[in-house]
């Protein structure tokens, strides 16, 4: 998992999922966002993942997802969007 975090330039927010628990590694996130991402991971059997997000201005974030299956990437972005309001 460390490789995913080190592989990208870190700016903004990095959230790591380990054993179905999401925690912010860089930046600050709402507890409800971490809880919802952790639940999504647990519900779909994702044990390890990493999410990088960078502000694109006006409250919009560019979210990059690693470790979740491709069919769940949109769900991760939806969880992010709902929790940023």
Query: Structural class of the helices, strands and pairings?
Result: alpha+beta
Q: Regions with pLDDT < 50 over 5+ consecutive residues?
A: none
Q: Helicity, in percent? A: 25-40%
pLDDT averaged over residues: 87
Strand content: 25-35%
SS field, number of helical segments: 3
Oligomerization state of this entry?
single chain
Q: Identify the strand order in the major beta sheet.
A: 2-1-3-4
> In angstroms, what separates the terminal alpha carbons?
29 Å
Largest sheet: 4 strands, antiparallel
Along the chain, the helix and strand elements come as HEEHEEH
Estimate nothing, just give the exact number of structural domains: 1
- If you compute it from the alpha carbons, what radius of gyration comes out, rounded to the nearest whole angstrom? 12 Å
Short description:
The protein is α+β, with helices and mostly antiparallel strands.
Description:
- The chain has one domain (2-83).
- The protein has helices at 2-7, 31-43, 73-83, and strands at 13-18, 21-26, 48-57, 60-66.
- The N and C termini lie far apart (29 Å).
- Helix 2 runs antiparallel to helix 3.
- It is built from three helices and four strands, in the order H-E-E-H-E-E-H.
- It is globular.
- 35% of the residues lie in helices and 34% in strands.
- It has 85 residues and is α+β, with helices and mostly antiparallel strands.
- The model has no long low-confidence stretch (mean pLDDT 87).
- It has a four-stranded antiparallel beta sheet with strand order 2-1-3-4.
List the helices and strands and how they pair.
Layout: H1 2-7, E1 13-18, E2 21-26, H2 31-43, E3 48-57, E4 60-66, H3 73-83
Antiparallel strand pairs: 1-2, 1-3, 3-4
Helix pairs in contact: 2-3
